[in-house]
Amino acid sequence: MNKMTRGNLRNIRRYFQEQTGVALDPVRRKRLFSVRKIWLPVAAVLACLAMSAFTYPLFSSLNGDELSFSSAVYEGNGIVSIVVENRSDKMLEFQPDAKLMRWVTGKELPRMKGKPVFTNRVVGPHSSATMTIDLSDAYDMQAIEENYNREEWFYLVLTNNGFLFGQDWMCSVNLGRQDPEPAAAEESAAVSVSAAPEILEEVEEELQFYFANSYTEELLAFNEANFLYQQKVEELLARFGGRIVPALGPMVMVGGPSEFLDPEPIMGKPHVGTVFDKSVPEEQQYLLTLSDWTYTDAYGRMVATADEKSWAQTVTIPQRKGETDGGVGLPLIFLFVYDAGMAQPENYAFIYGRIHSFADLEAYKVLEDEHYAVYDATALIYTDVDAYLDDFLAARPDVYCDEQIRQRVHNVYGFYQDRENIRTMYGYLRVPE
């Protein structure tokens, strides 16, 4: 058997030190220990710097940071120019990616292999900049321009952090045409009216721009203001600390006051014995009112979020004198339905641009059972029926209204403001689970 030589020992010592990093030589061990003592604080500092880079507060709507797209113009050839206003104290840097979506479907258009090309992606605090995005490598822009309705609006989803919620933003753009000539835009402008001052001042501040105008000539799915409003509502509710309960849409049944106990009440059944307009025969009184779900008020303004609707009682106003078998609907009464178990004082609802606690809404409750709680939110939308009608006439010059028609409106409004009438006439069919 061979003896352990000094050379063998050196080899074993060297191999051990190489494999473990532990210095067996006292002098070298001391030197390594000193180096490690210096390296540990440095590593800690570097780790802190790395962590601070990841935790540095990014621009986020959830933290109250606000931006505005004051202009988005399609220049043609796939290029969109956007004026971005940064209203926060933080630097805003968009990532070089975007999604092109249809408002009508909420889905992204077919994507090609390329990526959008950005210029001027960084916007400093409290400043604005014009950013351009070339979409031609990412989407077939020629096909989009040719195949979609020229009136349809699309939107870009932009982000500064991987499209995470609160760090992505929607920017509306019309891809079928460039901005109209000033003269054409002025010629097509509709008469616009604002929500009543006492209502407007109660609307959440960041949403007041929307209720300061009307959109009677705009289709809901093609109205640019609706899209901006939805974005702002989403950000507002995301920042809100309370629990927002969504409005529901059960199948509703409506009958006349004396007929609701019929086992099969019929939607729109005549209001037997009730006369809304003396100039109209009694057997035609039922033609003067309508009942249906609606997403908007009389002026095209959304009554809640994009997914919520109200049950509206509507009066018909003729377009010509003496007309009784048609006309234009003016929604007068707005009922909101919620899950009874969720409509608790500590929870909240979003109605007409404002967050309301169910404790405050208790005064508006008209119906409740073990399934649903129903609230008449008419007074949260308007308070003066004459002013409401006058604004409607200004926004809709195609309707006819004299004192008889005005009285009709008052009669319908008064009938449905009587809560006992509402309780008698309305019911619902529960959808089987």
Summarize the structure.
With 433 residues, the chain is an alpha+beta fold. It has helices at 6-20, 26-55, 141-147, 182-188, 197-200, 208-211, 224-239, 358-361, 385-395, 403-417, 419-425; strands spanning 67-76, 79-86, 92-93, 98-102, 117-119, 122-123, 127-134, 154-159, 168-173, 251-254, 289-294, 310-317, 328-339, 348-351, 354-357, 365-368, 372-376, 426-429. The protein has a 5-stranded antiparallel β-sheet with strand order 11-12-13-17-16. A 4-stranded antiparallel β-sheet has the order 1-2-7-5, with no helix packed on it.
Structural commentary:
- The protein is of the alpha+beta class and 433 residues long.
- Helices cover 28% and strands 23% of the residues.
- It is built from eleven helices and 18 strands.
- The strands form six sheets. Strands 11-12-13-17-16 form a five-stranded antiparallel beta sheet.
- Strand 14 and strand 15 form a beta hairpin.
- The longest helix has 30 residues, at 26-55.
- The radius of gyration is 32 Å and the shape is globular.
- 27% of the residues are buried.
- The model is unreliable at 1-5, 26-39, 49-55, 178-189, 256-271 and 429-433 (pLDDT under 50).
